[in-house]
Each structure stands twice: as structure tokens, then as C-alpha cells.
Here is the input.
Amino acid sequence: MSWRTKADLVWLDTLPGVERDHALARHTSFNIGGPAAWFCELGRVDEVERVVEEAARRGVPYLILGAGTNLLIADSGFDGLVLRVVNREHQVDGSRVRAGAGLKMMRLARLAADAGLVGFEFAIGVPGSVGGAVYQDAGCWGRELREVLVEVEGYVPGEGRATWPAESLGLGYRTSAFREGPLHGALITAATIELRPGDGEAAKREMARLTAERNRTQPIKTKNCGSVFKNPPADSAGRLVEAAGLKGAWEGRAQISDLHANFIVNHGGAGADDVRRLIERAIAAVREQFEVELEPEVELVGFAASGGQAGEGLGPAAAGGSPPTR
Here is the structure.
């Protein structure tokens, strides 16, 4: 049954602050993406829960958007409801920090250091939000979120609020039960991490060092989505793409970075199809030359065989039978 009944359209048009045909490019780190048929920003968790519950009940496809990293939205946009979640609260309780899903990981790393807590310095290299980091067990410099994650709070349409201990979430390299498991479709609202008391000023110095290293080796100041491919076991996706001869390759105004071959850069005016063609070229070249199958880390939304709740979005996937976020 189609979800586009008159009642569905009236409901969508009366959501708080809703906009029609809202350009999504401004909300993605790629600066790429067509319009959302309906778009609204929500800061309160209970508001997001109510909207997600009703969208799921009606079968309305929805996409939950956080920082907009690790996400490629089709030039045709998203034919459904896009919710941008901006709950960024945090609380420190001893060595534990609870953070709203919309808080950026880099900000959380600095807040932890301000509180005299250490062990989260690696997160200064994770550009996305807390929710997106949980969704794909984000990490950097050999550390992963799962190493410090205690529990995750969220909402399951049709069931209600839930809290999950980290060990129940199927966390692994760039995956989780939210991305590829039984919680696909659940909403992530907050996460709690456990760190160690220590020298916050030393942690800040270490984060400054890591940031300088990242600026030296990655195209940080460009429009990109972060790492495009997952690293194969015991190898580097960037090394393989470069060895296949595609470092610096172009499609339209999109380029495989000539600084780091696991990044694709929008030089201004690139379309999603340009980026997708570069992704497909890299996969084919590495397969042919090295018999290694690269797996995208970036989420593709709005393309054929895609959809759902996605990307640096906050968590998982969609209603109406479609997939997810980041």
C-alpha cells in the first residue's frame, strides 16, 4: 500500500518547522545531495521519537541525519522525510560521559579532556556525530569506539525506548547491530563512554599532535566524506587504490585525492554520480589487479537499491522497508 495518502501528506506538512524540497547538500560534508521531499530539524529526543514512531506506522521512508559525514546522497535527493537531529547534550559523572547522539565526536573528545579524562584522544580524528559513530563503530589511529563504549540509548518503533549494553550491539570494524543486524531500523539517541582520570592538558596536547598529523596526511580542508572504503584485513584501502593507478583520478568535479587515495574530494560542483563512478572504478581496478574486493564505508542514499535512514545520520535505517544511516 502506498504511503502517499492524503492523511500522510497532511501529517508531513504539519510537522514542526518542516520544509519541502530542502537542499541536503548543505548538510553533508561532501556538499553533495539533492533535495529532501520533507525536512525538519529536531533537538528534543521525545520529538524525534514521536516523529519516527509515526513515520514507521505510516510507512513513510525517513532518513535521520546528524553531522552528514560518511554519506553520499543521490542527486535526485531523498523521497521521504529527512530528520536532522541536533540533540548535543552531555553529562560527566566520574569517569563516565553520556552524550547525545547529535554531539560531534571531536567536540566530545575536547569535553572529555576538559573534564580531566583520558583515553578518548583518538576521537579527535572522527568527524561525525556520536550516533553515527555508534552506528558504524567509528575509530581512528587504531582505536575504535567499542573500546570505551558502555551503553547506548535508543528507540525502536513499535516497541519504545531501550538501553543496550555495548557488548550486545555486535560492534566490529565499521559495523554494528544497528548497521547490519537485528537493530537495523532502531533510533540511537545517546551513548555513554567510560574513560580514565588523567592529565587533561596532556590529552589536549596529544589531540593537537594527532590533528597536525591528520592535516598533513589527509585532505581535511576539502569537501569530502571521510574514508570512502573500509580497510581490507592487514592492508590499506588507500594503498590499494593508489597501487591500482587511480590516485588523482577524476570524474566531473570529483577526484580521488592526490594526498590520500581513500578520500574523494568535491572540488566544487561535483555530483553524486561523479563520486559513485569513482567508487565503482576503484572497486573494479583493485579487484582486477589484486583480487581484493573493496567494501564502501560511505553510505549511499537515494540511489537504486538504497534508501532509508542514513548517514552521519544517527543510526539506522528506515521505515517503509528501506535502509539506513550514518
